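Check these lines:
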Amino acid sequence: MMSEPKRVHPISMFIDFISDAVSMIKNFIIPFFVLIFVNSNSSIRFYAFIILGVLLLWKAVLTVLAWRRFTYRMEDDEFRVESGVITKKKKYISFERIQTVNTSEGIFQRIFGLVRVQIETAGGTDGPEVSLTAITKAEAEQLKQSIFNRKKSLQQEEGEAFNENGEGTKEHLTVQKPMEEEVNVSYRMGVPELLLAATTSSGIGVIISGCLAIYTQIDEILPLDGFVKQFSFLSHASIEIYAILIFLAVLIAWILSVGVTALQYANFAAKRKGNDIIITRGLIERHQMTIPLARIQAVKLKENILREPFGFATVMLVSAGGSITEKETSSVLFPLIRKKKINELLSQFTDQYHLTPERELNKVPKRSLKRYLISYGFVPLLVGIILSVRFPPWGYLALIPLPFALFFGYLAYKQSGYVIKDQLIQLTTRGIGKTTGLILRKRMQNYTMTQSYFQKKGRVASIHTFVKSSALLDSFGVHHLKEEDAARVCDWYSYETNKSS
């Protein structure tokens, strides 16, 4: 297979320049903000603008040169990329190493009918192995088909070679399904589900923490005394006024959270085509991600406190490969789904994962209740006592979170547990929300049983396991199980035990 060297679309120069300029300004935003907007010396402002202009001009020149030097082609079962302005770089990626070819459409790509293509390998860490900023949709589809058709041919040739030598394993020989047996199913998120997912998302905490982080940074570099004086009347306001302001702040954060979630999951669709799951999402920027079934390491179910009472959950795929820069939303299979429908859809999209009803879990023993209540309530109780003593009577308000913490501790005690079905283990635990992990034994990187001095006296233990997730590890576990249950899971996981059976 051979093709002529190609360049990405010229609009990629503009897209890359904007991206690099935003990144540069973001990295130096504080000093430039101080020099240009806060500093009162006009000469310093003038030179600051000159420096900023020179940097942007230099970045524009580098972007044009980088576009001219960047070429890609397919040759000798490899995807080859040549780049570099000063130093010429060559990158050869074997088709066999390529895990996924993902596409996305930003605002500028959509205007010109183009897509961004990201090629990922099993060893990717900080980002995709190759990123083609802007190429035509037809070329992207042709590129994807050429890579995976040739990859499939190479795997079939390898399987035939193993057969001739009398080698190979059943697992290896069954990786590829005949075309007539390929599974094709789809799931599309409707507008009602999108609105419900947006209104019940837990992104409000992210919005509030982000606003607080911005406030603390701005407070260090800007003289906010004048701004604060404008609201000095609030120091004499009643408790009702403060309650109204807090409510308005939370309402605005919630509205922002709804908007962000709606933009993320608009036009969400998941499709299984053969041995691949293809996920598309996004309104302003459209993303398409392909996850081979062989890359799935675990299935994760998340239920926050708003969705759990109504029987809704989010289903996510924990997949190997990719990059640590991938957002968590990239791995969402079903953003919002009723728990009673999970097994029906999950069995269609994956071959080996199924959810066991909570009533069949092996729960933690009754003697673990006090441990959960202590672990959840100790910090709120300590903080509440300290603030109550130091700042009476307002400090007593710090004790308000205590009953909520104890309530969630009780829920964690009632719902935590595990169940083993053949080669699949299901682990359920919770913090504020509930998390359930479905992990195949062969996908577990390790199994750990921990037991503190007090746990040993109470004849309980905690278990943990890890699976590959991009370049990191994703963990699942249950605290304060019976000793014999923790040992039973260890025996099930043991390689020698499974090998002898």
User: Anything to note?
Assistant: Residues 168-181, 218-222 have pLDDT under 50 and may be disordered. DSSP finds 16 helices and 20 strands in the chain.
